[in-house]
C-alpha cells in the first residue's frame, strides 16, 4: 500500500511571518501541496485568485458551510476564512503531504474534525513590538484594524502550547530550517 500524505498545520498570529516561511518552505521541500484557503475578504492589490486565496462571496461561503465542504472555517477580522475539505483529503489519500497555513481557531477545528494524525506547528514573532512593527510595515490595515489584529495576536500567542512544535521567527532562514527539519522527521 502506498504512503498516505501527512497534514502539517501551520498557525500563528497575523504578522508572525507564516506566509513568508511557508513560501520558502515550498521552494525547499519537494512533494508538498499548499492548500489555498477561501475567504470573503476583498483581494489586496498584490494577491492572485487561486494562489493566495479563493475570493468568494458571503453567500458562496455560507453555502459551503451548510454543505460541510470546509475542513475548518472561522470568522476573523470581520471576514470568513476556510479550508476546502475535499482538496486536502484527496491530496493526503494520493500520498501528498499538505501544508495548511491557518489561524488558531482553524487549527483547533482541524484537531477536532480530522480523524487522522496531523502535525501542528505554531509560528511566534520574537515579541509583540516586532509583531506590531511587521504589521505596520505591511501597510494593509487601518489603525483600528491594526489594533484589532494586535489584540487577537496577543490571545493567539497564548495558544502556542496547544501545538506540537513552536518556532520563533526571529531569523527567517533559521525558522525555515526548523520547519524543514520538522517535516523531515515525519518523512523518514
Question: Which features does this protein show?
Answer:
188 residues, alpha/beta, Rossmann fold, 5-stranded parallel sheet, 4-stranded mixed sheet, 22% strand
Structure report:
- With 188 residues, this protein is α/β, with parallel strands linked by helices.
- The protein has one domain: 3-Layer(aba) Sandwich (Rossmann fold).
- Helix content is 43%, strand content 22%.
- It contains 7 helices and 9 strands.
- The strands form 2 sheets. A 5-stranded parallel sheet has the order 2-7-1-8-9, with helices on both faces. A 4-stranded mixed sheet has the order 4-3-6-5.
How is this fold's topology laid out?
Layout: E1 7-11, H1 18-28, E2 32-34, E3 38-39, E4 54-55, H2 58-66, E5 70-76, E6 79-84, H3 85-93, E7 97-102, H4 104-113, E8 118-124, H5 128-138, H6 143-157, E9 165-168, H7 172-187
Parallel strand pairs: 1-7, 1-8, 2-7, 3-4, 8-9
Antiparallel strand pairs: 3-6, 5-6
Helix pairs in contact: 1-7, 5-6
